Amino acid sequence: MAYPLDRLDVQILAALQENNQATAQALAERVPLSPSAILRRIRQYRDEGVIAADVSIIEPGQVGERISVVMMVQLERHSPSAVNEFRSHLARSPQVQVCMEVSGAYDISCIAIFRGMEEFNAFTDANIASHPAVRRYEASFVKKRVKFTTAIPL
Hints:
Largest sheet: 4 strands, antiparallel
CATH superfamily of the largest domain: Lrp/AsnC effector binding domain/regulation of amino acid metabolism (RAM) domain
CATH class of the largest domain: Alpha Beta
CATH topology of the largest domain: Alpha-Beta Plaits
Shape: elongated
Radius of gyration: 20 Å
Strand order of the largest sheet: 2-3-1-4
Number of domains: 2
Distance between the termini: 16 Å
Number of helices: 5
Strand content: 15-25%
């Protein structure tokens, strides 16, 4: 069930999505609440799971050259156990940033990041191409990130 958001919740959460390091005082300058009331709400968001995590988003190019890949996977077998095992397999892979079940010609869509073609080839050989649940896959290499955000429109 969705957490019931009021106008102030939306303002606080939108501000936190821009900068989760903002102080309660800075948030109080944008949202008509006291810093203590804002902190109480933020604590409740965390307790209720509205805020799933507080993370730092690292610029890939600043930590060495990386390639991003969009992979589309078509499964051979659609039994729940085969699908669950393959999903879990991908979810445990540190290179996989996003993994989704999708509708259409493919069953799974992933975005993954690698240190180069050698790591990409080793990953796909070991984790996708040789997996018994996989019928086929396609990979598209990201040429340029036009937009990247984790923000949810509220």
